[in-house]
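Known limitations

Files may contain more than one protein. Parsers should not assume a single record per file. Below, a two-record file is shown to illustrate correct handling: read the sequence, read the token line, then continue until end of file.
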Amino acid sequence: MMSVSLDEEVTRSPLPRLLVATISCLAIGVGLYLGTAATHSPSQRLSVQPLVRPVPPLPQAAGAPHTAPNGFRLANFRAAPERSLQTASKEPFPLPYQTPAGTSQASPVWSPVGKLAILGTLGLALGAIAAWWNSAVNRQSGELAMLTTTGQSTSKAGSKKENTSGKSVPKGEVWEVDFCSRPLVDARGKRVWEIMICNPERTFEFAQYIPNNKVNSQTLKIAVDKLLEQKGAERPTSIRFFRGQMTTIITKAFRELNLKVAPSRRCFTMMNWLEERMIEVYQQDPRFDANISLAGSLRGPVNVPPKKLPDALRGETWDFVQLPLSMVLEETKPVLAGKTFGSSFDLKNAGCGDMSPDTMIPGIVVFSRRGKALAAWTASLEIAAVTVDENLKSVLLETGFNDKWFYGAWADKSLVAEGKKWEQAKLQTRGLHFMAVQEKDGGEVDGFWLLMKRDAPEV
């Protein structure tokens, strides 16, 4: 089979594909028009009713300034027997075609002319699509074979460490992805790149070396396509990645596969896996070069100034609190069950699996009279961490790659010491902390986020 290079595929004109799609759509449209025209008289046609489902607006922000109650206390959460959230209406979904009130619905009578018109045009359209699809599959097969050969010949020493764990079949709704250069130099003196994909539970792992002249979105897309073609592969619903410099390539590849991409620093499993591979794989590879292990590795988010928090995300008061790890994990159970807004992660794969259940975990609680609405809006963010900035006398909410938001502030200088104490407690828990949203002190928890502040890996 003749293979086609990735560069040729990228530069190939899309006009033939567009022409086939246009002709097919026109043919189907003409056939349906002729068929319906020959089938129904004006008095027999059904009227189409618009499918409009009004969405009630969320409550407006209270607008009250943040206040900072004194005290670094134990959070007073009351575990409700049932955590109810606003759910979608259970009314039956309206039919797309309805007859006007007071009229009878006539049964359609398909004439021979209508049948022939529709069947003929559908046959022409399907034939054109099948011809185009066969050509596309042949090109794709050649590219996949070329990519596999390239990856296998990249490293004999490192190939033993790639996908030998029996975890190569994609599992889970969330993937963590990294596409970056490694501290390895090939025979041409160029740095070796690598595609790595896993799920947060690490029951799925994939690693593939890539030469530096194949670093593009098409290479990543082909590799992911091949993964999803495996028997038993589960298609993810969200893709996380933490290197902002690779946004264009990663976003383009997964969006072409109709997969949602979420820039996030919550790739804790991927970060730990990278640190493991640095010791167990890269440093054992004969191509390893310690002089470039840190240089040009696209590390970490770039510092940016905090922004003003949108009104929909404003609470009314907040407080520094702490909870034993056992209680923190208890609060994450409704989140994992989908009964409460928020997010969590596996402590073991994040490097915190050996922590004692009695370890006191620092956190912040935000109170609001519109707790459920505030929790719902907050859940739309990819929250990474909560930090205290002593110079700005503010609590900052960190999201995405490098976004920061003013989340709470204080005028009392005495709270500077409390903020410092809270940050010190976070260091003692390896960056582990939490954020909760409640309507009132001691009431039901409307949102709970398990968070972790950690640096990007040095690879």
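...continuing to the second record:
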Amino acid sequence: MAITCSAGCGKSAVLKRPKTGDAVCKDCFFWAFEQEIHNTITHSNMFKRGETVAIGASGGKDSTVLAYIMKTLNDVYDYGLKLILLSIDEGITGYRDDSLETVKRNQIQYDLPLKILSYEDLYGWTMDAIVQKM
């Protein structure tokens, strides 16, 4: 027997929120998630209009969700932030290659500028080079 979304939308619940115990559908979960983040940002005065905010972008699911939610909320609520994706290439062969491709896809998907800094550019060494010297 399907459980109905506790938000009252009439749809079937797909998950139970650990934070509240509410059984919610996908749409209501997304709405609640976005509202909680928006409320945190606004009530804590986290940002000021015109600020540049770098989003640490590893290419993993956490930073991808962060990029998505910040882009969405900035557009919907007109925070007036300049958002950029920032990724670090440590210079470990085979380690960062795939995730940097994900970050580049995120750049296109979310229409955000991307800055990739490398250990080599910053410090003159890659992690591979450091390990070889040890």
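Parsers that stop after the first record will miss the second one. For reference, the second record is described as follows. The chain has a mean pLDDT of 94.
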